[in-house]
Structures are given as structure tokens and as C-alpha cells.
Task: inverse folding
């Protein structure tokens, strides 16, 4: 099949892909193509009709579609080519991209590839929640899509498992549409979502948040009839005797997101078991030269603003790669130290500014994040209230590295 | 309208196979199925293995029909377009007792007519399945794996093509012999009459048998859990790996699926209800622990789903039944009664069906149809086509270029074909079983909204009429506004 040549192909037209496209164009990379599987650009933002997006990037509160539209307008203004309703089937390590649309199969060969496929939700099957298998069990994103994009109401009496942000948003959304939300149950002793969402989506609507509790059984052979909720101990094991039955017709799961890297794997990109996304360097280049990644495909973000900013930072690396300027680059490892669940990028280049993203394992007050090299602290950041729900970032200046030995990032 | 020559109670693999075999003849045939689709009970909730025939007592119908079914399955799979792979299978052992037991199994298998059985050493075992843990094994080269949904659906669709009528949501509530020798059958979807009744009700067979006046059977049940693993690990398991069997139970095994997933299970837990498909945490933990000693590649991160199946224990007046019963009793004329049908029922389905049909044909001597079409074709799957074929498919039908299910690469053309299936099934699980959409790692996170919308549009359903799998399993409560 004939390959169409492109300078850069961007896989996924959500917030990461859109921001990367605009920034690349503005850096002079104009032979671009965005490939989007849905009918419209915008990715998951299309179904996020609530506001609160853009406070960092645009200094104002926008709805999801409004936030996406800011970027879509920039794409259109620059006449950056994009195609929709086109599903990428395969990416090779030689940057060949194969996709299907109603017009047929397409094959591109790109100098550079940007992976911006986003993430998917963890499901009941991944969690192995015991019990029967009735209708009425939805992941939060699926429920959100049914309600906001398909005008379809999923239920009347709702229990929400997991206090991830989409679960909190859906607690409010379902309430506003007339459903009774019995409560949100979280297995951890603290909420998984952002504090402001707990405030605005639960507290403002008097929806109870029950911590250290999880659904231990699903009841109903046809439509959901109820769930059993149990308390858990510090090891997240169910405490016998604490079971409580909640009748409900709907269970909404907000139990985590997983970067969607099936295509990355086909290309041979190495994944980090902690982030479940690609291993990348300062420039967000994966282990396959010329393939870059940004956004939720790389690590799950708390705010879309940081997705856009990350994608915008990626372009410097793409330009350097296309100009063959990054060949002599020395990479050093960034190791994960105590108190953090992950650190990204996993490798950084000498003599280049680097933004290091991370999350803490548990809520803590007044901590110091330390970046060490050969035992010497080369950077640190004080955090008054560190929450697993919030991503933390530290910027290392180009001249801050002490040697070419590995870095370690930890909670001090 | 509801008068038939033959009514088959049960639309599982056995009922569908009987329907298909009977449709060779000039008869008006109906199937009564309690669910909105075929294949929702035992037939779809098992290990999906074509068995070699070595695990059953010498001289039983189980042994004979299993071997027959196994050996003919290439032809059957071709006729009905059922995904099937003759992968072979190993029973893996470690101790001298295991070796004795395997030698015994092999001797029985050889008498049963199982083909090609071989005791193999560790080296050969590792060549066959490099990832397995064990010292030696019995290798059965004729064993295989199939898509159990496509098999039952294939039989049913082929039967329908040859004139059989499938009546869904038709649980039988009473059977009354009439003066003219025919039967009146009461169901939840209305009344039927038929000259012949064939009981292929699977888990409901004891009840139907009683309704026919054959009250000599009883049933207990065990529930077996299964875990489905991501296709990530499929390449690590080229064939089913079983432990050495005990007398009554095959043991927890790991099985590749024809589509490249792996299933782990089943255990055997006594249950009271025949409809309790719930899964328990401790059982799933036990599966992982037990199966990991055979095949140490079971990791939480690869879990995508679980399910349970009911395995009946059949009893008659003498105690536990060890064989299938396919009977036409003198005192209950014009009936064929099938009880005791359990594993290897899937492998033996067509041989069982031919036996059942023979009872009727010997008595009734119906004429063969001038033309019987033994084939049924699935819609072409986009994911199974080469790039060149994919291009042709899209040019012929642009709906092939619209990928609805990302995980399994299922196109809109395939979903539409499944929505307009020949049996008239209208449920989401019906589409899932026919296309594999919603079966992948995201479990419908990306595609189910589109499929629910297409189902409404194509079938003119109201949003509140969309069913998940069974009757009263409504997915939605209405429009938002």
C-alpha cells in the first residue's frame, strides 16, 4: 500500500494532541497530521460539560468543550490537517502508521510520531468485584458519555465506588438529573479525587463520602438490585461483620484510569510499570527514537491544563529530533525514591531544563520533595499539603546537574 | 400458529444441535428457550475445550460420543464457520502417583478410541509449552479450543436457515398430554402444541423431565469460577494445560481462547441455586494460587473479567449418574428425554443430537428434505482479514472502515450484521457474543454507547427497551431530557 510521507503524525485529537499540533506548527513544523477516531476533535473533553478547566492554562474557568474549542480554533486558524473517524490500527518502530476509515485503509510514514491516545477506565473485571453480573454497573466515564453525549439516563438510585474525579463529577451530574446518589465509597482512608471536587460535587449536594469502605458484593441477576459495602482495614482487607446492604439500581465505578498504550506496545515502546505509560526522557521521547508521548497516555494527570502544558513542552524535543540535534545527548536515569508512586521523565538529558512530575503515596503535610544526585541535594520543593490526587512538578534548571550519575527523587 | 411437529425445549448447544440435525427432515420444528438468546447457561459458561475422550469411563456414551465429536470437529467447524483450533492439550504431573494416574488415563483413553495420546517427558513438554511447570505430561494432540458462543449460535442459525423457529423468552411452565397423543405446552410467551417433545433443557432438564411424567432424576450443582486474562499473555500459552485429573473433577486449568485470551478455572463449589452465577473473592484468589503452580504467568494487571458456570451433578435412583441419558421411554410416547448432559456435552453435542433424532426418526419415519444446507457463514471479521482484504472490505462496504470496538477491532459493519442476526436476538450481550465487541480489555468503555444507539436505531427500540442479557435486564431508565 502507498505510504504518504509526513513530518509529524499525531495519534489522538484530544487535549494533548491538539496542544502538540499547535505548538509544533508554531515552531515551524507544518507538515502535520492529527488522526482522531471520533467524529470530532476534543477527546474526552467533549463529554466533560462541567466547568473548572483552564484555570492554569487560560486563567479562567471553562467547560470541557470550551477548553477543547480554544485549541480546535487554533488548529483551524493554522489550517493544520486533521482527519476524524479514522482509527489507527498499527504503529511500527519505523514510524509507519496504518489506519482505517470509511474511505479505506491509510498508511503514513512519518519522521516523528506523537502518541496522544489518552487513557481508559479500570473496569469491574480488572477489580474482580465479587457477585453477580446484572445490568446497571457502569464506569463513571461511560455513564458520563451516556448522559452528556447520548441523552440516555443510566439509573435512579446510585451508589458510586471510588472517589476519583470522574466519580465525584458524576455524583453531582446524576443528582442534578434527578437521580438519588446514596453515597460515594472509597477504599482508601482519603479521597482519590481533587479536594475542590469533593467540596463542589459532594458537600454542596450533601452526598456522603464514606472512606475506608468498598463494594464487596454485587446483587441482582437481571438489573442491579443492591450492593454490599464493607469496611476495610489498613491493608485494604475487608473487615468481617461490617457488611451493609444498600439497595440501588446503578453502580458507578470510578476506580482508576490506565494509559492506553496498545499502539505504543506495537511500536516496541518500553512502558513503565508504575505509570503504565511509556518510559520517556526530558523531551518526552520514548525508547523508540522519534516517537514521543504526552498527556494521559504517558501518565494520568489531575488537570487537563497540565496535559496541554506537557504537550507544548514536547515540541522542543520533536524539533531537535527532526533537525538531528539530539544525537549526542547524554541521558541519565531518574530513580524513584521513598514516598512517591512514580516519577516522570524516567531519564533526563544533561544541560537541559527538565520538568519532573510525580505523585505522593499518601496525604502528608509540610513535606519536602528532594532531588538528589550522588547523595547531594540538587533541588527541593516544600509542599504544605501533598495529596496523591494532585500531581507535583519540579523544574530542574539546565545547569543544576552535578554529574552524569543517576538522580533520585523522594519525599524527604 | 404455535402448532409444531416437534418442540425442542432448550436453546443451548444440545437443543440447537438437535434442531439443526432434525431440520434435515420435512417437519415443522420449534425451539422453546427461556432466555432472550441461545447459549446463556452451560453452553457458554465453560472452558471452551474440544475434549479428546480419554477422561470418561470405558463403555459410556460420554466416551464414545466425545471421541466421535472430537474427530469430526474440523468438518463441523468448517460447515458452521466456528473459530476452532486443534491445539492439543497436556495433563501435567510431577509425582510417581501422577505418573500412575496418567498411565491409567492413557490406557482408558486408548480403549475409548482417543487418538494419538502420548506420555511425554519434561523436555518434550517444555517444547510444546515452554511456560509450563511440570516434570512430565500426557499429551492429547486431538484436543482443541473453540468459540463456544459461535458454535451454539452457528448451530442455531443453521437450523433457522433450514426452517426451525426459535421462540425466545419462552420458559416452559407446563406440559399436558392431549387425547390425540400430542402435547400442549404452556410457556411464558404463550401456548404451543406439538406431536413430539424433546427435552434438551440442560440445567432445567429435571424439571422438564418431571413435566413429561419422568420423575426419576434429581440434580445437584457446583459452581465453577473462571478468570479471563488479557491478550497480552495469550502468546505464552499455546494449548490448554490441565493438572492430573481426579476421579470426579478435571482440576483447575489454564486454557487459551481461540481469540488469544487465557481463561483460568474452574473450581467446584457446591451451590443451591442453578441460576447463581455470582463470583466470590476467595474462590478467585484460590484459582490464581492453584493454577499458578502449573503456569506462573497469572497477574492481576491482566485480569479483564470473570465468570462462573454451573456444573450439574445428576442423580437417578441408583445414585450419581456417570453417563448421558438419551431416552425415548415407552410409557411417555413421542418424547426424547435428555438428562445427565454435562461435560463433554459441548464436544459431543452433534453426536448426542443424532442419537436423539434417531429415536424420533425410527418411530416417525419423516421424509428428508430435498435440500438441506449444512452451512452457515459468519459475517467477515475485519480483525481477521489481511490489509489487502481489509481494503477490499471497506471499498465494498464503508461500514467496515468504521471501527466501533477498539480493543477487538470490530467494525460497524459487523455490529450491524449482529444486530440483524437471523435469530432476531435484541440484547447487548447478543451483539457481544456475535462480534466480540465489548469483550476486550476496556469491556465496552469505548464502544457500548455506540452499540446501544445503533441497536435502538436499527430495531426501533425505545431507550428503556435496551436489554443487557436477560429478560428484565434493562440498561437505561429513560432519556435525560
Result:
Amino acid at each position: 500500500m502507498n505510504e504518504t510521507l509526513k513530518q509529524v503524525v499525531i495519534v489522538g485529537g484530544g487535549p494533548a494532541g491538539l496542544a502538540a499540533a499547535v505548538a509544533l506548527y508554531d515552531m515551524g513544523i507544518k507538515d502535520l497530521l492529527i488522526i482522531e477516531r471520533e467524529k470530532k476533535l476534543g477527546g474526552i473533553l467533549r463529554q466533560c460539560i462541567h466547568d473548572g478547566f483552564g484555570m492554569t492554562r487560560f486563567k479562567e474557568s471553562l467547560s470541557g468543550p470550551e477548553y477543547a474549542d480554544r485549541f480546535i480554533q487554533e488548529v483551524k486558524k493554522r489550517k493544520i490537517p486533521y482527519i476524524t473517524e479514522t482509527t489507527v490500527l498499527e504503529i511500527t518502530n519505523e514510524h509507519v502508521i496504518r489506519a482505517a476509515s470509511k474511505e479505506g485503509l491509510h498508511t503514513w510514514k512519518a519522521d516523528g510520531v506523537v502518541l496522544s491516545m489518552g487513557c481508559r477506565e479500570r473496569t469491574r473485571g480488572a477489580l474482580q468485584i465479587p457477585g453477580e453480573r446484572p445490568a446497571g454497573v457502569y464506569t463513571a466515564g461511560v455513564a458520563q458519555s451516556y448522559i452528556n453525549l447520548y441523552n440516555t439516563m443510566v439509573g435512579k438510585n446510585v451508589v458510586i465506588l471510588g472517589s476519583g474525579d470522574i466519580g465525584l463529577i458524576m455524583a453531582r451530574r446524576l443528582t442534578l438529573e434527578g437521580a438519588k446518589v446514596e453515597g460515594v465509597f472509597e477504599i482508601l482512608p482519603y479521597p482519590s479525587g481533587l479536594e475542590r471536587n469533593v467540596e463542589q460535587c459532594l458537600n454542596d449536594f450533601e452526598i456522603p463520602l464514606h472512606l475506608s469502605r468498598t463494594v464487596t458484593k454485587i446483587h441482582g441477576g437481571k438489573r442491579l438490585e443492591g450492593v454490599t459495602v464493607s469496611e476495610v482495614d489498613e491493608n485494604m482487607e475487608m473487615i468481617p461483620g461490617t457488611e451493609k446492604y444498600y439497595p440501588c439500581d446503578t453502580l458507578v465505578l470510578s476506580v482508576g484510569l490506565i494509559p492506553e498504550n496498545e499502539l505504543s506496545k506495537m511500536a516496541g515502546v518500553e512502558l513503565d510499570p508504575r505509570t503504565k505509560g511509556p518510559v520517556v526522557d526530558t523531551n518526552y521521547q520514548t525508547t523508540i527514537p522519534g516517537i514521543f508521548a504526552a498527556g494521559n497516555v504517558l501518565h494520568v494527570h489531575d488537570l487537563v491544563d497540565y496535559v496541554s502544558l506537557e504537550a507544548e513542552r514536547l515540541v522542543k524535543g520533536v524539533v531537535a529530533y527532526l533537525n538531528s540535534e539530539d544525537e549526542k545527548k547524554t541521558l541519565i536515569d531518574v530513580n524513584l525514591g521513598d514516598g512517591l508512586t512514580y516519577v516522570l521523565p524516567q531519564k533526563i538529558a544533561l544541560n537541559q531544563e527538565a520538568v519532573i512530575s510525580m505523585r505522593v503515596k499518601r496525604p502528608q503535610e509540610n513535606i519536602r520533595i528532594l532531588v538528589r544526585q550522588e547523595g547531594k541535594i540538587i533541588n527541593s520543593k516544600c509542599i504544605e499539603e501533598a495529596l496523591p490526587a494532585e500531581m507535583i512538578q519540579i523544574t530542574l534548571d539546565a545547569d543544576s546537574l552535578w554529574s552524569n550519575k543517576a538522580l533520585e527523587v523522594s519525599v524527604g | 400458529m404455535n402448532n409444531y411437529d416437534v418442540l425442542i425445549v432448550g436453546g443451548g448447544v444440545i437443543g440447537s444441535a438437535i434442531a439443526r440435525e432434525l431440520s434435515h427432515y420435512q417437519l415443522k420444528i420449534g425451539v422453546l428457550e427461556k432466555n432472550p438468546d441461545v447459549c446463556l447457561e452451560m453452553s457458554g459458561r465453560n472452558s471452551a475445550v474440544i475434549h479428546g475422550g480419554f477422561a470418561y469411563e470405558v463403555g459410556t456414551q460420554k466416551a464414545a460420543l466425545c471421541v466421535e465429536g472430537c474427530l469430526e470437529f474440523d468438518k463441523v467447524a468448517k460447515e458452521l464457520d466456528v473459530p476452532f483450533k486443534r491445539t492439543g492439550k497436556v495433563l501435567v504431573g510431577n509425582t510417581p502417583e501422577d505418573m500412575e494416574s496418567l498411565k491409567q488415563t492413557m490406557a482408558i483413553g486408548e480403549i475409548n478410541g482417543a487418538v494419538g495420546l502420548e506420555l511425554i517427558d519434561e523436555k518434550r513438554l517444555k517444547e510444546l509449552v515452554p511456560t509450563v511447570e511440570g516434570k512430565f505430561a500426557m499429551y492429547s494432540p486431538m484436543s482443541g479450543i473453540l468459540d463456544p458462543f459461535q458454535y451454539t449460535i452457528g448451530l442455531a442459525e443453521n437450523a433457522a436457515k433450514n426452517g426451525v423457529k426459535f421462540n425466545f423468552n419462552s420458559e416452559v411452565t407446563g406440559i399436558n398430554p392431549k387425547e390425540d397423543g400430542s402435547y400442549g405446552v404452556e410457556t411464558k410467551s404463550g401456548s404451543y402444541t406439538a406431536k413430539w417433545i424433546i427435552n434438551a433443557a440442560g440445567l432445567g432438564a429435571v424439571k422438564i423431565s418431571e413435566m413429561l411424567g419422568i420423575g426419576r432424576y434429581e440434580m445437584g450443582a457446583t459452581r465453577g469460577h473462571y478468570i479471563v486474562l488479557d491478550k497480552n499473555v495469550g502468546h505464552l500459552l499455546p494449548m490448554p494445560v490441565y493438572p492430573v485429573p481426579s476421579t470426579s473433577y478435571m482440576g483447575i486449568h489454564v486454557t487459551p481462547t481461540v481469540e488469544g485470551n487465557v481463561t483460568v478455572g474452574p473450581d467446584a463449589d457446591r451451590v443451591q441455586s442453578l441460576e447463581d452465577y455470582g463470583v466470590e473473592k476467595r474462590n478467585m484468589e484460590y484459582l490464581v494460587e492453584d493454577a499458578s503452580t502449573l503456569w506462573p504467568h497469572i497477574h492481576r494487571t491482566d485480569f479483564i473479567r470473570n465468570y462462573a458456570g454451573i456444573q450439574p451433578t445428576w442423580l437417578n435412583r441408583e445414585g450419581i449418574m456417570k453417563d448421558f441419558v438419551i431416552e425415548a421411554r415407552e410409557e411417555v410416547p413421542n418424547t426424547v428425554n435428555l438428562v445427565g448432559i454435562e461435560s463433554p456435552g459441548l464436544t459431543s453435542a452433534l453426536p448426542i443430537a443424532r442419537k436423539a433424532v434417531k429415536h424420533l426418526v425410527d418411530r416417525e419415519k419423516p421424509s428428508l428434505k430435498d435440500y438441506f444446507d449444512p452451512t452457515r457463514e459468519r459475517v467477515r471479521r475485519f480483525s481477521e482479514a489481511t490489509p489487502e482484504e481489509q481494503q477490499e472490505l471497506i471499498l465494498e462496504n464503508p461500514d467496515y472502515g468504521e471501527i466501533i470496538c477498539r480493543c477487538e477491532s470490530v467494525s460497524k459493519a459487523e455490529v450491524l450484521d449482529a444486530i440483524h442476526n437471523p435469530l432476531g436476538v435484541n440484547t447487548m450481550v447478543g451483539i457481544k457474543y456475535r462480534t466480540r465487541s465489548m469483550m476486550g480489555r476496556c469491556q465496552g468503555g469505548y464502544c457500548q454507547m455506540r452499540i446501544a444507539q445503533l441497536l435502538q436505531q436499527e430495531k426501533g427500540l425505545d431507550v428503556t427497551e435496551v436489554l443487557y442479557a436477560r429478560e428484565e435486564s434493562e440498561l437505561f431508565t429513560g432519556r435525560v431530557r
Q: What stands out?
A: The mean pLDDT of chain A is 96. DSSP finds eight helices and 28 strands in chain A. Chain A touches chain B through 49 residues (CB under 8 Å).
